[in-house]
């Protein structure tokens, strides 16, 4: 397969200043960096350039005739294509000047006060270029993954077609059944090898991003609040991606029967309460009210793998919050089924699930008719949870009425101790 990673082009830096001598000076300082420098002398020309090219960084003068730096930055932040491009203002304002705060509000991530220290300028530009290049590498890795998945899908399609043709020609159902089984085993093995290899390839740049972010966060260099916030976004995004990679690997292990569970006596009530506490902030940010009910003085001890069970509970509650309506609510309940099971129920006031989608809900990599850009994940959360619950001797299911909400439940075997 063609390696898309070699297609990375030089990142571009836009330098905007109405004085030619300033453009020349900044260009001389940045001559050694691996980037394509585009220099313009007005805000209007800068806006024209960002519509033509993708930029890793914009160095923007504040005081310019016509559209000044603040106005230019506000226009960039209002455009979906350019709103995340980091902007560093080049200004003669003093650090205590109130215009500094105006610049941060307009979208600046940093300031450099004129006359500019060449070493500081060069150091900061290199940091932004490194973060940009790592982001581009991740995008290309994703394209590699998508291309290989397409190739594997095409390969399996052609293989199955060939098997069907041979079965029709030979009229030997038993022989063809054995051959199909062998091909399926090969496909599962290939998928496992593929996921293992791609996880390693993805983790290499990902570890760099997480590690470099931690270094910057612990650095003695004084960072602005915007810088700290942006580093937090980068770190949390990296950890989220790491979590998704681990989930894919766990799913592959389940498919091949290699995932092991450690069944033990677990206090289900304590686990649910801890999980609800951890979702308090997330639910608040979504304006979702969480209610919790259980029978007092009831001992909710079950036989389960505590680590895997926590993953399942958090997945169900997280879905109830993410797919809820604005100012909605969820009710988490613990119930005694009066047989061999305790039940965790999660009822939400979301939009519910269409009847045509109910049979797809526990299918691998299925995403239903929701805003795909607004909902994170790769579509294996519920199927992963179902397989784990079944491995622990339990069951998972749901009820849903479109327009009214959904109720998900997990039944787990009671502890005999």
Low-confidence stretches at least 5 residues in length (pLDDT < 50)? 1-6, 369-379
* Shape verdict: globular
Query: What's the rounded overall pLDDT mean?
Result: 81
Ends: how far apart?
Answer: 55 Å
Number of distinct beta strands: 12
Radius of gyration over C-alpha positions, nearest whole angstrom? 27 Å
Biggest sheet character: 5 strands, parallel
Q: Which structural class do you get from the secondary structure elements?
A: alpha/beta
Summarize the entry for a quick read.
By secondary structure, the chain is of the alpha/beta class. The chain is built from eleven helices and twelve strands. A five-stranded parallel β-sheet has the order 2-1-3-4-5, sandwiched between helices. Strands 7-9-10-12-11 form a five-stranded mixed β-sheet.
How are the SSEs ordered, and which strands pair?
Layout: E1 12-16, H1 20-29, E2 36-40, H2 43-52, E3 57-61, H3 69-77, E4 87-91, H4 99-106, E5 110-113, H5 118-170, H6 173-218, H7 225-255, E6 264-267, H8 268-278, H9 280-285, E7 289-293, E8 301-304, H10 306-322, E9 329-336, E10 341-348, H11 381-391, E11 395-401, E12 405-413
Helix pairs in contact: 2-3, 5-6, 6-7, 7-11, 8-10, 10-11
């Amino acid at each position: 397969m063609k390696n898309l990673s070699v297609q990375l082009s030089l990142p571009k830096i836009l330098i905007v200043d109405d004085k030619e001598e300033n453009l020349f000076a900044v260009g001389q300082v940045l001559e050694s960096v691996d980037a394509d420098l585009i220099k313009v002398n007005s805000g209007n020309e800068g806006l024209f350039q960002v519509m033509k090219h993708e930029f890793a960084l914009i160095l923007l003068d504040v005081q310019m005739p016509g559209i000044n730096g603040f106005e230019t930055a506000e226009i960039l932040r209002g455009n979906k294509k350019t709103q995340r491009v980091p902007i560093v203002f080049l200004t003669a304002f003093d650090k205590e000047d109130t215009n500094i705060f105006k610049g941060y509000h307009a979208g600046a991530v940093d300031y450099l006060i004129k006359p500019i220290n060449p070493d500081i300028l060069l150091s900061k530009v290199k940091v932004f270029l490194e973060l940009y290049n790592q982001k581009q590498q991740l995008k290309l890795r994703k394209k590699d993954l998508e291309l290989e998945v397409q190739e594997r899908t095409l390969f399996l399609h052609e293989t199955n077609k060939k098997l069907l043709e041979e079965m029709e020609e030979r009229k030997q159902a038993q022989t063809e059944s054995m051959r199909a089984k062998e091909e399926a085993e090969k496909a599962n093995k290939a998928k496992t090898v593929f996921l293992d290899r791609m996880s390693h390839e993805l983790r290499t740049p990902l570890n760099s991003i997480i590690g470099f972010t931690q270094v910057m966060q612990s650095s003695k260099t004084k960072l602005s609040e915007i810088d700290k916030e942006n580093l937090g976004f980068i770190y949390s995004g990296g950890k989220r991606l790491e979590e998704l990679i681990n989930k894919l690997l766990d799913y592959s292990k389940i498919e091949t029967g290699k995932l092991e569970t450690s069944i033990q006596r677990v206090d289900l009530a304590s686990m649910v309460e801890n999980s609800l506490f951890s979702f308090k902030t997330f639910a608040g940010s979504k304006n979702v009210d969480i209610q919790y009910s259980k029978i007092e003085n009831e001992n909710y001890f079950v036989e389960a793998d505590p680590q895997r069970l926590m993953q399942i509970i958090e997945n169900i509650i997280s879905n109830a919050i993410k797919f809820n309506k604005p100012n909605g609510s969820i009710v988490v309940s613990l119930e005694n089924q009066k047989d061999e099971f305790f039940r965790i129920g999660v009822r939400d006031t979301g939009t519910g699930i269409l009847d045509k989608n109910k049979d797809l809900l526990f299918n691998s990599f299925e995403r239903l008719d929701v805003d795909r850009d607004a909902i994170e994940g790769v579509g294996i959360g519920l199927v992963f949870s179902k397989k784990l619950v079944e491995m622990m001797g339990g069951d998972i299911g749901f009820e849903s009425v479109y327009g009214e909400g959904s109720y998900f439940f997990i039944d787990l075997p009671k502890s005999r101790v």
